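Chapter review: from sequence to fold.
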Amino acid sequence: MPTERFFLDLQPAEERMRSWPHVVIVGGGFAGIKAAQRLAGQPVRVTLIDKRNFHLFQPMLYQVACGLVSESDISTPLREMFAKASNVQVLLGEVVDLDPAERRVSFNNSHLTYDHLILATGSGSSYFGHEEWRPLAPPMKILEHADEIRRRLLNALEAAEQCPDPERRKVLQSAVVVGGGPTGCELAGSLSALMHDTTRTLFRQLKPEDCRVTLIDPGDRVLRAMHPSLSEATGNHLRERGVELVLGARVQEISPGRLRATLAKPSPGQADEVILEAATICWTAGVRASHLGKLLAERCGCPVDKGGRLVVGADFSIPDHPEIRVVGDLCSYSHTPDGTPLPGMAGPAVQMGGWVALDLLAGLRGERQAPFHWVDFGSMAVVGPLYAVADLRGWRVTGLVGWILWGVAHLAFMADNENRLTLLLKWLWAIATRERASLLITGRPDQHIGVEVGLEEVELGSAEAKITA
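The token string follows.
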């Protein structure tokens, strides 16, 4: 029997707002936050819904995992962000259903009606049909994931400090990162630096030369989305930092402390299979759209791409529902000069959210907004202390200059001025002293397993129901 739901009618803070159009934004990521900021102070009533009460600066999650910064340095409470915007209401909850015909969303066992809906629920991690690997190899999408990776690595080093078996110690001092994209390269380089720094200064029984970080990817180079010259520079720097690259390898099996992969093109005399033993295994290889996109596709028949992203029109609306806009990682936007879908990155998400908000306001005034045009500022990745690679629309830089550009760009994207200041100070402190802000082992083991990024529990329940039926 379906759960009974009630309508949630919240009175706006001011009488004059009661006649204003109601805009519901689902998701407090880059796209959702930018849309809400553009609508703040405008003659619309905004309700921002998110299952977490904070905005997470996801590109810096790996810095939490390696102890450079703490959770609060890259997170900002949503209510604080919109404390001065009287027309923006923040609600905590997860949207579990949509009714496009009735223009309402369901969350917290209640309904909420809207005049305009902006979906910005982002993406999660894909294990390509092997969900059993998730507890063995945490992804990098939420704070709990970063905390779990740091906890596993530091616990492994603590165990190695007390281990009398030198071979077992080497396994405990080993980590594997699956996925050679920006997140994988950043995480691998940072974990290598963390392990070498701590074993050199904090652990008395461990040798830095026994630390081993392996980055595995099915492609022929890391950072395949970037120019080959930057991929080569990144690979060379990672190797210099002690990271072993295993390219052209596809993961076949993950078990506790062990990973097996097959090589597409093994060298002469080389086995076509590689087995890695490591106490810490991390997953950055796959991305899938939020489950809410699949749900909306079922409700109104709108198309999705092979990654589960909703195919949207030039104004980010879905067919037959101009009042619904989909932005960020959840949408597949191909209305570009060459027809290539926009990448799932913070830059495009911010521009999408801002444009949709302005287009919505223009429509309410009876005006037409100029067509969306994505400004590609380039891409970048940090792969070690004071070393980053950047491709800024053809201007390619590496090393310290790249790191400075990376730092300036990421500080500019931060949603909170206080976070900008604390991050800058902690970076400068780490450079000067090589000390880290957070090397605490806290919480319970495997706490990330019980935290869903978006409707995983609902989807798994449906799958189990089909099996037992």
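Two observations follow directly from the output. The longest strand covers residues 249-255. The domain at 20-51+93-125+288-364 is CATH 3.50.50.60 (FAD/NAD(P)-binding domain).
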